[in-house]
Amino acid sequence: MKICAATGNAGKLRELRRILEAQGHEVVSQKELGITIEPDETGTTFEANALIKAETICKASGLPTIADDSGLCVDALNGAPGVYSARYGGEGLDDTGRYRLLLENMRGQMPRTAKFVSVITCCFPNGDVLTARGECPGTIAFAPQGEGGFGYDPVFFVPPLKKTFAQLTAEEKNAISHRGKALEAFQVKLKEYLKQ
Ligand code: ITT
Q1: Which residues contact 56 (CB under 8 A, 6 or more apart)?
Q2: 154 near 166, Cβ under 8 Å?
Q3: How many CA within 13 A on the CB side of residue 167?
Q4: Catalytic residue positions?
Q5: pLDDT, tens only, 60-74
Q6: Beta carbon of 153 within 6 Å of any ligand 1 atom
């Protein structure tokens, strides 16, 4: 299926593209279609924000459109930064600034358990909507490690692998990540939907 990816995040787009193409889909980004809209993420849940993004960009692209709303939920911080992960610490910070702030806020905190969450929503031009969620448990590292991935990957430690997300190859991350799991569940739902 030809799918528009509704995201302005280059790291996320790289992962969405790789996984969806491996599932046999053709992916075109909103940027490649010349769509510069940045929907206002006014929701308070991953589900609400994924729907806002997919619905808005579907209307503009006329294609089945996938959005991912995701974030890092840290137990000792009562689930923060959560849906606000991209805006943690305010507009002035980049990925490095945000994970440094997280490490600062985690100083002396126990436990260090956390999870990444991804909600994938696909809106179809006829108004139909499919949604899937994926989660990946881990802990917050004491210092950044690794160069791969994006966002909080250098500080998200996966105990069974004894590595951060940033120390994994793209394939290794996609095999266990919140986004990989959500897209796996999405593919199952899509197959059922297309059979109808
Ligand atoms: P779009 O809305 O345009 O897709 P965004 O970056 O604003 O881009 P979100 O609102 O979903 O996307 O914010 C998700 C943030 O959570 C993202 O900016 C990262 O900081 C973080 N995040 C999500 N998935 C991640 C991953 O796999 N690795 C590292 N950080 C991740």
Answers
A1: 6, 37, 39
A2: yes
A3: 14
A4: 69
A5: 999 999 999 999 999
A6: yes
Contact (Cβ atoms closer than 8 angstroms) between residue 63 and residue 123: no
Contact indicator for 13, 153 with CB cutoff of 8 Å: no
- Pure H helices in the chain: 10-22, 46-61, 95-105, 170-176, 178-195
Residue 35 has φ and ψ, to the nearest 5°, of: -95, 115
Q: Separation of 54 CA from ligand 1 center, angstroms?
A: 15
Q: Is 56 in the pocket of ligand 1 (CB under 6 A)?
A: no
Q: What is the C-alpha separation between 25 and 33, in angstroms, rounded? A: 17
Residue nearest ligand 1's atom 18 by CA = 86
pLDDT digits (tens, 9 = 90+) for 137-180: 999 999 999 999 999 999 999 999 999 999 999 999 999 999 99
Using DSSP bridges, classify how beta strands 129-140 and 163-164 pair: parallel, antiparallel or unpaired: unpaired
**pTM attached to this predicted model:** 0.98
Q: Tell me, what's the pLDDT at 140?
A: 98
Residues 6+ apart with CB under 8 A from 132: 119, 120, 182, 183, 185, 186, 188, 189
